[in-house]
Amino acid sequence: MNNTATASSGERTGIQEGLIVSLLGFTVVLVVMNTMMFNLALPKIAAEFMLTSVASSWIVTGYSIVFAISSITFSRLSDFIPIRTLFTTGLTLLGAASVLGFFSNHFIILLIARLIQAAGAASVPGLAIVLITRYIPNDRRGKSMAVIMSASSLGLGLGPVIGGSITQFLGWHDLFIVTGLTLFLIPVFFKLLPRETPQKGSFDLMGAVLLAIGTTGVLLFLTSRQWFTLVIGAAALLLFWLRIRRAADPFVQPALFKDKKYMMLSSLGIVSYINNFSTLFLLPQILAHLYGLTPAQSGLVIFPGAVVSMLLSNRIGRMIDRHGNTLLLKFAPWLLLAAAGLFALFADNNIYAIMAVYVLLSVGFSSLTTSVSNELSGNLTKDQVGAGMGLFQLSQFFSGAFSVAVTGVALTAMQNMPLSSAYTNIFWGMTVVALASVIFSQLYLRMQSRKVTEKSSRI
């Protein structure tokens, strides 16, 4: 039985693809920038409110936790609640929290504003993919997916530039103006997004709570090294697994974890996020400590990679629409591997090498995540899209936070070594991780090839 929210009777199921996807891309840029910008403002915020490093880190850690849980929640709710309702609700939360944050003069108010921002911002990337999957045919879906993924890369590149400049010349309060722009997009999306008929459905609140506690516990362990948080998180995840196997309408269908193709593609996407987020965590430090650049200047070094990725999004999308996902799934992981190896060789020698290699990484990352998301959306059934894509988003965001935490631990462990040697060692480690993406892609393509061969033999 299909319980997915559907277009209202009498409404066209088609959408204004070009306009809506462009607006979604712009909104994704704002959301991803919001994630990155505050990292650069933490020292000034900590000084203004006289915070410890642990307290100030909650501005980022708390945001990450709420964003991760809210992303899968919005995607799951889209199975029976209209996307337009969920999307405008998310943008309202994001915009209202931006206004609250702009006028905040106390740390608690600032933290509350950031947490509400995260809850609203999480609606954008997940629902964008669900919308594209639901309303754009397979033969045109690749181009739209490419816009969303390259917009994410552009936001990652713009975040340090815009965040560093605003913090340096205006102040951290003005960072909230950027995401406050989403308030003007609410009536636009309300008009353009398709009207859907709400369907009967139930929300597995217990499953959502257990998953939230589990991921929060693990993330807190990665940032605070408190073992009891890991124990609580692991116990909650175990209870979550037992819950979804017994619930009539579980928060996440257990069948997803048994789907080899889904798990292989998800692993491929996770590895790509680990490489990209670790690099974006390391590069500003390398540029500051080895080359003496300011945050804004560091952002300008990273920015060209994001721009090139955005400019190539149309070509990437057309390639997928014409030739399928196989070509990029086969070759994009090699770009990640090459970029990691080149960073290990040249990151401590030449600033222009850093700029050029990040272009390679950014293009490889956008190409791979676009093809993986498009392939996943085509493999999932209509009833699995919300939970499947939401779980994929959650795993990506979690893997990004995990990679940053592990990279930080590695830097601390090598604090007695010369910085250049420590950075080089980490990049060699990332090269091994990138090699895993090549292995996952080859295994998945073999599975697909075997499936095609079996079908041919039956004919």
UniProtKB/TrEMBL annotation:
Keyword Membrane attached: yes
An example Gene Ontology CC term for this record: plasma membrane
Highest classification ranks of the organism: Bacteria, Bacillati, Bacillota, Bacilli, Bacillales
Natural source organism: Paenibacillus amylolyticus
Membrane topology designation: Multi-pass membrane protein
Domain called Major facilitator superfamily (MFS) profile: residue spans: 20-449
Name of the protein in its database record: MFS transporter
Membrane-spanning residues: 20-42, 54-74, 86-103, 109-132, 144-163, 169-190, 202-221, 227-244, 265-287, 299-316, 328-346, 352-373, 394-414, 426-445
Record PANTHER family: MAJOR FACILITATOR SUPERFAMILY MULTIDRUG TRANSPORTER MFSC
Subcellular location: Cell membrane
Keywords tagged on the record: Membrane, Transmembrane, Transmembrane helix, Transport
InterPro entries: MFS, MFS_dom, MFS_trans_sf
Gene3D superfamilies, A to Z: MFS general substrate transporter like domains, Multidrug resistance protein D
Keyword Transmembrane helix: yes
Any single Pfam family the record assigns to this protein: MFS_1
Alphabetized GO MF terms: transmembrane transporter activity
Superkingdom of origin organism: Bacteria
